[in-house]
Structure formats: structure tokens, C-alpha cells
Amino acid sequence: xxxxxxxxSRVICKSGTSVKIECRSLDFQATTMFWYRQFPKQxxxxxxxxxxxxxxxxxxxxxxxxxxxxxxxxxxxTLTVTSAHPEDSSFYICSARADRISExxxxxxxxxxxx
Amino acid sequence: AQTVTQSQPEMSxxxxxxxxxxxxxxxxxxxxxxxxxKQPPSRQMILVIRQEAYKQQNATENRFSVNFQKAAKSFSLxxxxxxxxxxxxxxxxxxxxxxxxxxxxxxxxxxLTVNP
Lengths: 115, 116
What we know:
The complex is a heterodimer. By secondary structure, chain A is mainly beta. Chain A has strands spanning about 5, 10-15, 20-25, 30-40, 45-50, 55-60, 65-75, 75-80, 90-95, 105, 110-115.
């Protein structure tokens, strides 16, 4: 399958700072990327969908000003958690899809800890 | 709206035996995709198997096969000859093909433990 690389795999930041997570499709062009959040022992919760060159579509209840998503190229999307607080600590996962009929491939995930 | 239900929070099986994980779904679309994903302790999401709703034949991938019952909206996963490496969370998911329904909708997952 195709490769999606997510970086960093782990990050610890201080409360009030911002942290950026990158998601790259390494061997295909991703027209659509998805960002998920996963709490311990729970399923993946979709946060937002981003299409290259367009503004992201956020799911209900997700603060767009807190979770900034940029999809400036066909191989890179970023999620920036702004003014992070301890309750933002979680596992964040991205996935990327080439087109509407293709399957999505997942990154390795990022463990964010806000202290 | 699509929904996916996995009614078995946890299951266990002995190595080399067969286990079936259940999944039901609901969708108003005629064409859609169904998936089973595996999430091992590393938390990397791995696609196990994929089924296109318009295909009547059940998908198979080596030791993994599905029982797709379209009328009943059921999509179970059978793992044959279970191996220790199959220990993981398994998520059933669906995706539509119409605008706005193309995102993956996941079930709550089933934690599978393969015992030696």
C-alpha cells in the first residue's frame, strides 16, 4: 500500500504553546487528507477533512481556531494545535487519499502531551 | 448518515483457531465501501480487507475473509489460523461515495487477544 508519514511521533509541549503536526503522502498525491483524534481505548474521531488548496471542513464540535489545518500541497497537510492545554493531550492520526474512489492510508500517529 | 456498530468490545481466541468479529452498519446509499482496519499496540492503522458493496462476492485476503450480507447490513470478519500477531484492536468502517459521505465512519472497535 501507499505510504503516509506523520511527524513527530511524540511531542511534549508546555501549556499555552502551539505545536504543529505534519502529514505527508510519500508516494502518491493526496487530494484529500483527514485528521482524527483518538482517546485511550476509544475509536477514531474525525476532526476535519481537508482538500488541497481549500479550507478544511471541520466536524461539529471541533474548534477551527484551535486546530488549524493547512493543506497547501498535494503531499502535505499540517495540523497546528494552538494555545495547547492539558485537555488537548491525545493521539492524533492523519490519513490521506488520492481520489474519491481510492482507499485512505494512515500515518503512524502523533502522541501529544501538554504539560 | 452512516453508522457502524461493533457489539463485541473484547474477544479472545486460541492460537491457530478461527474467530469471527461482528459488524453491522446503516447507510442510505446504494454504493459504498466497507473496511476492516487493524490497530496493533503500535497504534498504526492497517487496512485488513475492503469490500465494495456492489460486489456480491465476499472479499478475502489470505487468512482474513468477510461475510458480507447486504440485505442484513452485516459485515463480519473471519480470521482463520489465528496468530499471536493478530492481537490488536479491530475497527469496522464504512464510506459512502456521494458528496459529504466520503469520510470513513468507524465502529467502536473490538479488542482481539490471541492466546498461545
